[in-house]
Amino acid sequence: MYDLSIAAGEFSEMQIADAEHWMELPDFMRASPDLFVSRVVGESMNRRIPNGAWCLFRANPGGTRQGKIVVVQHRAIEDPDHGGSFTVKLYQSEKIEEYGEFVNQRIVLKPQTNAFGYKDIVLEDELEDLKVIGEFLSVL
Q1: Backbone phi, then psi, for 6, in 5-degree steps?
Q2: What is the pLDDT of residue 138?
Q3: Beta strand pairing status for 101-110 and 121-123?
Q4: What is the rounded CA–CA span in Å between residue 24 and residue 46?
Q5: Beta-ladder partners of 106
Q6: In the chain, count of helices (H) and strands (E)?
Q7: Which of 10, 16, 23, 71: CA 20 to 30 A from 87?
Q8: Per residue in 60-103, pLDDT tens?
Q9: Which of 109, 114, 115 has its CA nearest to residue 127?
Q10: For the whole model, what pTM was predicted?
């Protein structure tokens, strides 16, 4: 378990993640070194993740992220309340072909909520600053 509260809103305050405790996984999950648990705070993902829920994530997921709920870090965007860099959202990207390779032209981080006031986070110019930290697996 990491002492890190991930924002389900905009980007949370700057945090450094240090492993704090070990947690027992539910019987249906198999432990592996790439799994971590963290608390998700906020209402922007409340259709999938309740505010304050402890969630299981897979660190540094490979493959496509399209349509998955992910934890991302972005140093160029700061939350107006907290000035931080982590958030959890539904990931969508638009790609273009450049020199025979597909590259992200636009990334949209979408809230999944029934609460008022949450908007998509749209990244177009600062894509190289976005890092996917983990893929959401389950609320614990």
Answers
A1: -90, 130
A2: 92
A3: antiparallel
A4: 24
A5: 94
A6: 0, 8
A7: 23
A8: 888 889 999 999 887 655 543 344 577 889 999 988 888 888 77
A9: 109
A10: 0.78
